[in-house]
Amino acid sequence: MRVLMGLFSFTVIFILAGCRKEEAAGPQSVPVKAESVATQEVRSSWRYSGEIRPDKQVQLAFKEPGYVDSLHQLRGADGRWRDLQVGDEIPAGTVLAHLRRSDYEASLNTAVGQQQSVEGALDAAKAELDQARADQTKADLDFQRAEALYSAKAMTRPDYDAAMAHHDGAIASVQASMREIEASRGQLHEAQAQIVSARINLGDTNLVAPMPGVIVEKDVERGTLVAAGTRAFTLDDTRAVKVAFGVPDAMLAHFRMGSPLPVQIDAIRKTLTGRITQIAASANRESRVFNIEITLPNGDRCLKEGMIASVRIEQANAQTVPVVPLTALMTAESGSNNYSVFAIREREGKQFAELKSVRVGQTVGNSVVVEEGLIPGERIIVNRTNQLNDGTAVRVIE
User: Fold this and answer.
1) pTM here?
2) Please, what are the domains in the chain?
3) Position 13 pLDDT exceeds 60
């Protein structure tokens, strides 16, 4: 029994001694590779994205109400004639749609008839004026004779008064005829204006394309009843297109009106040269960026509205900047370019990983520019960063 108790005590002492040795040894250091923060000459660049927009966009609407009687016809892919549809390219002056003309033709005919009636009344008034002037001429002669006879006491006073009244009546008839002619002329001008208006309204039953372009929206079909102002089509002029994007105020110095800029279009895998045609005079109140507009030629119509385009701006002079390998970066904060790296710090002859926040810039090959957080020559860990925490003991291996 004593022998067993002795063996048990020896075993316990042995186990406790082993535990003390493990506690004394502490956690194992993680083997890592390290590099010094290098420097490199880099020409800084900035990339902005925008979308393709038409040079001009017009919404075409009917000025007059009515029923859509017909639409412009094109030959389809199957060889048959069909109505105009979205995506069709049309030249300037094309009549895109007709309203039913019968109501407007009736209004024009009514106005023409009114004009003819007024012209007849005017001719009659002129004839009456001619007769009144002839009557006035005779009345003038009769009154002159009456005055001579009355002065010679060869005419009685009642006959003289009758001659005077007849003369005054002839003058009044001439004046009345002249007033009637003036009224008829006013009515004629009004009738002529009604004819002009009726002809304009009749012409407005045709919806005409004011420029060449592509139909991007169609809101009517044959038989549609439209009100005045009803939109029928949206027409884009894409002979030239625009790329719009926003830049912060610090970047405005890199843009000048009329300057050429390369624009990359990923959809067609081409880089085209455009010119800056607009720089906003003030920043957007919400986003606080300045809108820039670049115009691109589009003679072959390969650029479509909504395509994504990107613009790359490069700094004129190269700068020497610190760079680190991409493998050294830890996950970025959401929505920012702030990352983290592990730097090596030594304490009491031992090496530890120290987590540091850095702000990075553009990528250069397999490295990235560090704008803030590190200095050249500082040693950083470039592998096994997912196995480390701030303060983890490390061992640098070659």
Assistant:
1) 0.60
2) 28-42+318-396 (2.40.420.20), 58-100+205-232 (2.40.50.100), 103-203 (1.10.287.620), 237-314 (2.40.30.170)
3) no
